[in-house]
Amino acid sequence: MKNLNEQNQLSKNPETVKTLRLWEMIFLGKGSFFRRCFHIFICIALRLFFRRIEAVGVEKVPKKGAIIFVLNHPNGAVDPGLVFVSLPRRVSFLAKSTLFDVPVAGFLFRVIEALPVYRRVDAGADMSKNLQTFQNCEALLARGRCIAIFPEGISHNATKLQPIKTGAARIALGALAIGTDNNALAKNGLKIMSVGLYYTSKTAFRSEALIRYGEIFDVEPIALDENGEPPREAVLPLTGEIENALKNVTLNLESERELETVIKAEALFSSVYENLLFKQTLTQSFLRLQDLAEKYKLLGQNNPEKMRELSAKVEKYESELQTSGLTVESLSVLQHPTAYVFRYLILRVILLLLLAPFSIIGAIIHSPAYLFSNLIGLMFKTHGVDAAGSTYKILAACLFMPLTWLVLAGIIFYFYGWQIALISIPITILCGYIALRSSETLIDMTVWLKSVWFLFRQRALFLRLLVQRKTLQQEIGEIIKK
Fold first, then answer.
1. What is the mean pLDDT of residues 381-396?
2. Which of 197, 222, 201, 229 is nearest to 212 (CA)?
3. How many angstroms separate the CA atoms of 148 and 83, rounded?
4. Residue range 281-297: mean pLDDT, rounded
5. 3-state SS class at 382
6. 173 touches 222 (CB < 8 A)
7. What are 68-90's pLDDT values in tens digits?
8. Nearest CA to 64 among 158, 185, 162, 149?
9. DSSP labels, 59-121
10. How far, in Å, CA of 83 to CA of 197, rounded?
11. 198, containing H or E segment
12. Residues 79, 155: contact at Cβ < 8 Å?
């Protein structure tokens, strides 16, 4: 393997967890003027849709040299968008060919230098055209550029990785085999880097997204066969290495039921760390989910009775909490002095009251666009064979929100003139943002207000639930330690 010292050095350094800010994402834009403009558009759309976007390990991405990024594909066009705005490198994505046939979408995909992939699952796709796509990929890599591939081949709702296709391995081996002494591949080699994408909810507005940059490894050059193709005995092992690297940065469970159980267990276990002063990073939650998933799988194999018993306890406890109107996090209210909790809530109530006129106006103005966007997301959950609910919802919001501002400005222009109409646009956007943040603060406060009220009315039950949480946390903790 090449650059072993560099990789060993990276492995010694802890990964950096970053919550991506809008300005940071915009700053990473590369390429032509139109590409940069579209980059800014994607940044704003994603930052508004997601409450938190977290990137971990992005510092491991080499600043120079050819790289193939391989990603899991759970969420349609949102997946490439997140990597597009978090990478410090100029990257070209491989996207399904049918997207290039849509007039506006096709133009935008060409602006961001995406490359079409012709799939058997797409009606009328000419698979022979993939040869040209592979050649374009090899040419980009020869110049020291980056490409990104979704080796599962489709965007899906499954709880684990789908079978990995061989395209990424074939492109990598083919590019190295045709390299010359003068290109970037001959000088610096070719690396493959796994990237895992995780969402707290794929389609919920103001959910959270994690981009995890994982293992990076060098590809060894091989000789092509008599047909000018990478030999199967080289393609399959490299595909297996890609699959293993992706499994290390993704959450893999056999069924929705298993996923739900693990998520509940993680929320129960990690709630002891959640309080008003400190919130866990999404990376911490994901790593615990990943660890619990593996331990639960082993527990189910080695001691299925214990697994069923623990799952039943978690389900029963969750049911009791729901009946009481509480969450596992809200039980942490006792971790703070009463005076602190009271001061925390009072300050936020005052802030909400001061901003109430703006937030109410913003909510009223933007509610039709919000409702229509959600409706479109529910109506169009797929694009062909691919999961695309979030993609449609975000695209609809990108259409309906600006349309809302323009319609309102048009009405104001009719009655009051162009000067006031022009001023109304930024004011309308500001009111919408205040409404968004106020609603989030109100939801957060509601959790704590319910806890305080429940503690005041039913202290004995509250304390019993608290003790039960501690007992279950200890049981789950034992599984993690073992």
1. 90
2. 197
3. 9
4. 86
5. strand
6. yes
7. 999 999 999 999 999 999 998 99
8. 185
9. GGS-SSSEEEEEE--SSTTHHHHHHHHH-SS-EEEEEEGGGGGSHHHHHHHHHTT-EEE--TT
10. 9
11. strand 190-199
12. yes
Yes or no: say if 389 and 202 are a contact pair by the CB < 8 Å rule. yes
Between strands 17-19 and 50-56, the pairing is: antiparallel
DSSP string of 144-186, one letter each residue? T-EEEE-TT-S----SSPPPPPSHHHHHHHHHHHT--TTSHHH
**Would residue 76 be called left, alpha or beta, if left means φ above 0 and alpha means ψ between -120 and 50 degrees?**
left
Which of 47-56, 305-314, 380-389 bottoms out in mean pLDDT, i.e. has the lowest?
305-314
Domain 4-247 belongs in CATH node 1.10.4100: no
Residue 332 DSSP code: G
Q: Burial letters for 308-319: b for 16+ Cβ neighbours within 10 Å, e otherwise?
A: eebbebbeebbe
Tokens of 297: 């799988």
d(CA 456, CA 462): 9
Helical residues (DSSP H) of 325-417, grouped into ranges: 338-379, 389-416
pLDDT of res. 95: 93
Instruction: Please check the confidence at residue 61 and state whether its pLDDT lies above 90.
Output: yes
Question: In the prediction, which pLDDT does 4 show?
Answer: 36
> Do you know the residue count of the chain?
482
Encode burial over 443-453: b for 16+ CB neighbours within 10 A, e otherwise: eeeeebbbbbe
State how far the alpha carbon of 296 is from the alpha carbons of 158, 261, 264, 362, 476, in Å: 18, 9, 12, 45, 10
Break the chain into its structural domains and give their ranges. Answer: 4-247, 263-331, 335-465
- Could you give the 3-state DSSP secondary structure of residue 192? strand
271: DSSP letter: G
**Cβ of 394: how many Cβ atoms within 10 Å?**
24
- 10 Å CB burial of residue 256 (0-12, 13-18, 19+) is exposed
337 Cβ contact list (under 8 Å, min separation 6):
none
Q: Are 125 and 388 in contact (CB under 8 A)?
A: no
244 vs 376: CA distance, rounded Å: 36
Q: Please, are residues 140 and 131 in contact by the beta-carbon 8 Å criterion?
A: no
Q: In sequence order, which residues have a C-beta less than 8 Å from that of residue 313 and are 6 or more positions away? A: 472, 475
Backbone angle region of 146, left / alpha / beta, with phi > 0 → left and psi within -120 to 50 → alpha? beta
Instruction: Please report where in the chains the tokens 């890609």 appear, as a residue.
Output: 242
- Report strand pairing: 207-218 vs 190-199: antiparallel
